[in-house]
Amino acid sequence: MIRTTALTKVFRSRDREVTALDHVDLHVAEGEIFGVLGRSGAGKSTLIRTVNLLERPTSGTVEVAGRELTALSAGRLRAERRRIGMIFQHFNLLSSRDVAGNVAVPLEIAGVGRAERTRKVGELLDLVGLSAHAKAYPAQLSGGQKQRVGIARALANDPRVLLCDEATSALDPETTRSILDLLRDLRSSLGLTILLITHEMDVVKTVCDSAALMEAGRVVESGSLTDLLTRPDSRLARDMFPLGLSADGTGGTVVDITFRGAETAQPFVSTLARTYNVDVNILGAAVETVAGRQVGRMRIALDGTFEQNVVPIGYLREQGLQVDVLGQDTAARPFPGPTASDSDSASAVSATAGKDA
Amino acid sequence: MPWDELRPLLWTATQETFSMVGWTMLFTVAVGLPIGVLLVLTDKGGLLNARFGAASPVTALNRVLGLVVNVGRSFPFLILLVALIPFTRWVMGLFGQATAIGTDAMVVPLTVAAIPFFARLVETSVREVDRGLVEAAQAMGASVPTVVRKVLVREALPSLVAGLTTTTIAVIGYSAMAGVIGAGGLGDLAIRYGYKNFDDRTMTVTVVLLIVIVQAVQFTGGFVSRRLNHR
Fold this sequence. Notes:
The complex is a heterodimer of chains A (357) and B (231). Chain A is of the alpha/beta class. Chain A contains 11 helices and 14 strands. Chain A has a 6-stranded mixed sheet, with helices on both faces. In chain A, strands 2-1-4-5 form a 4-stranded antiparallel sheet, covered by helices on one side. In chain A, β4 and β5 (67-68) form a beta hairpin. In chain A, α3 (99-109) crosses α4, α4 crosses α5 and α5 runs parallel beside α6. The radius of gyration of chain A is 24 Å and the shape is elongated. Residues 329-357 of chain A have low confidence and may be disordered. Chain B has a single domain, classed as MetI-like (MetI-like fold, Orthogonal Bundle). Chain B is built from 10 helices and no strands. The interface between A and B is medium-sized, with 30 and 22 residues.
């Protein structure tokens, strides 16, 4: 639905150049909620602004709903933009118009007649639960309500794509949650494709199907969340789902197990202990709901060396579990401690002995 | 001067002041508002500048407009008034009465002086509109004229009204020089009868009347500006 190809944006000021986007290839499939995560300055804001060409890329192409926006004339681009909704961190509502007036703006721009406008505005306010505030001015609304107005406005011309530029970053956690719920509902009911950028991992975890991690203008990692979680070296997955334990202080072989969906129901730890007669020491475990699915991670220590434990580990792999043996092949690398998720050394975690047994 | 003589003079002068200031403000808004908006649109980072590129004639237009506005604002009004006499006569000729004197003719130099003054105030007001609002409108597919109408001018309106108020009061002040080209008005009355004839009563009454008018303009402008402001 959204595809960027080798998207590059270089900002030039008098004597220096800043590469905000460096050959970014992004693909957002129809109907999915795609999150771009990154710190400030990583280029994610520039990225979302180039998708509807608020920012012209220096090179590369942008394609939305099969149309190459970068190739369009100014007039055609304006017409295409009407089919791409956008919401903003600071809402960007007109202070001079009331709620209904704000939602009507895109309809006016699209040349919709007055009667139809009134009908559509009523419908949209209903959709976001703000019918009672139609006559209120933005200054009288709370942040969450303002963002709801922003969403209603963005949906006015029935777009197929919604861009969210840090849409929840100015909101408190509870309000963030309700806005994310609304976005997810709208995705299902309207068949929207949503591209959002955020610096909050929680947002990605709560609402996204897929995610990309941006650093210094590049996408360093991307994929569906469920796939990312099974990649042992995925920084997104680890940040999203930290075990927060070190392997220190244990003899034996330390193993990370990642399991999803139906696998969570298997009593594999007790089976393991019983069948192979090994002592299993659970160092840490967590189960979370990511992208609407149950995902768990567990770190266990098995008595003895890796060589002694090849068979039980093979058993775990046979169960369809993602098994990563710590220290294996990577013994020389520093192992991240509990706070290592922020440091660069974190990326060195547990590249494993074979992804599949 | 006895009251009986003064009263009709005051009445006529008040009407003349209102006429001069009224017409002047009409033309000033008609010309000054677009110039002020253009100053923003053509400036670095402005919508037209972004659209056509910094190397285009847009930048040149910005420089020229800026220069014209500054030159216009540099003139002491009295000098501008006199220097413009041929121009005033030409403009009045377009309206079928080629003269550089009288209350109607006074509207020309007043307008010429008020336009750059107002344009700068418009520029400041429009510049203060949040860039995010402009972007939001662009993201909805708005063209530059639509952004100007629905966002820039509309959002700046309370501030524009305040600028209009300030300009109106400045024009009321300028209009006191009208006597130089044989036009009337309250200011002229105060100068000719009050100041030059040492008639304290005429002077005092006229000045008090001007104070009342200025107060009324300020109050009305402030009221309207506040009513328009929903921030």
